[in-house]
């Protein structure tokens, strides 16, 4: 669950194990209760939504389980961002259907973006689906469940202008007990021509700031030490007062959450280059606990392509944003990107512009994709998906290769420094090592000694790969 936004993700075995542990502790009182099994795909907002779904169903007397064989309701919270995301879910539905043949009483529901995009078509295409529920209709799940039990197929894909689930305390599924995600807004009002999200998630709306602060405070009191504020475009967060004037913008929200406790780290994702303000950068500078890491998707380094993508900025504007970040926060702010290779009509020179933009920025990480046409989007309607798959893949591999070099270079910069690390648990490879993240969001691995999950520790960085920093805990001031 490292990816903060957009990644297509099926739980790895390791993560499923993590889920087991968390769910067993979560649902200690599960005995005798009806059980649901939830699998989440796509971005962190989808994962966060699954936690809301678990909370709604728990109030109805259901317990979550990590063992699908004991569940009477299986929910797949799905993603539509690229074609292969949907294909994964279709394959999964087929496997589940095979199990269902022996157990006809088990019901299967599709939630999330695919439910919203395909609506009743899902019932026709995938015969084994009993329930289709869009991202704004989760409060209706108990009613829909009743309908299904009466032998009907149930659908609710109504998109709302208001729903933020502000009053629902998520059940933290698969949590490490240290870091948590908080949705601060839903939907997206941008119209990037390649993107399906505005259609699957509806209009942008922000959640009441006090409910966000309360959720973060509550997490801190329960021992959590890091929250990530989530939205498709967090910088356009705005809460309006009764008179309709903006009373809290994103920079102010960051400060409100930052004020909760110096030991509560605050991160956020995703930032749209057109909306991130100097005030946000100043807040990051002024609050030690607001972490120095910005996910700033570029999508392309070429102005003509950016225009076709309707990203509303050009190459120069994006570069100036990067300069601004460096002016205010210096070199010790990690920056990551999303990039799309082979968008409609992209020439070889235009692809080179993406590579040269990467050289200019030297990103710490990147999430890189080749273009996948999504039905109904402006690009699908107006532009030709004319770059062949082989070329798309080759351009993508060049982007990935460059990123690997930059990630390594950016990590090597930290060798010899001391980083404040929030410990998240054992390292993936060995229980003799712990792992956590530094301020810049890089994974740091170090020998366990007597340190524990949830503590902060200063680690002297001694070596690194493109993905991980390694070192030893030290008792000294931060360098
Ligand atoms: N709201 C975020 C991104 C959400 S989707 C933002 O504006 O940056 C996550 C990423 O998926 C996008 O940044 C984009 O790089 C990628 N993506 C979206 N639609 C895509 C498509 N049709 N084909 C390939 N990649 C896509
Ligand atoms: Fe999609 Fe653009 Fe909205 Fe991001 S900002 S979710 S890429 S439309
Ligand atoms: Fe997220 Fe995928 Fe939907 S990226 S918003 S789950 S289309």
The bound ligands are:
S-adenosyl-L-homocysteine, iron/sulfur cluster, FE3-S4 cluster
Number of domains: 3
Instruction: Give the neighbour order of strands across the main sheet.
Output: 2-1-3-4-5-6
Per CATH, the architecture of the largest domain is Alpha-Beta Horseshoe
**How many H/I helical runs?**
15
Shape: globular
Structural class: alpha/beta
The amount of beta strand, in percent, is: 15-25%
Query: Which percent bin holds the helix content?
Result: 25-40%
Give the tally of β-strands.
Answer: 21
Largest sheet: 6 strands, parallel
Distance between the termini: 30 Å
Integer average pLDDT: 92
Q: What Rg, in angstroms, do the CA atoms define?
A: 22 Å
Low-confidence runs: 1-26
The CATH class of the largest domain turns out to be Alpha Beta
CATH topology of the largest domain: pyruvate-formate lyase- activating enzyme
The CATH homologous superfamily of the largest domain = tm_1862 like domain
Kindly list the characteristics that best describe this protein.
single chain, about 35% helix, 3 domains, five-stranded mixed β-barrel, binds iron/sulfur cluster, pyruvate-formate lyase- activating enzyme, Rossmann fold, alpha/beta, binds S-adenosyl-L-homocysteine, globular, OB fold (Dihydrolipoamide Acetyltransferase, E2P), binds FE3-S4 cluster, six-stranded parallel beta sheet
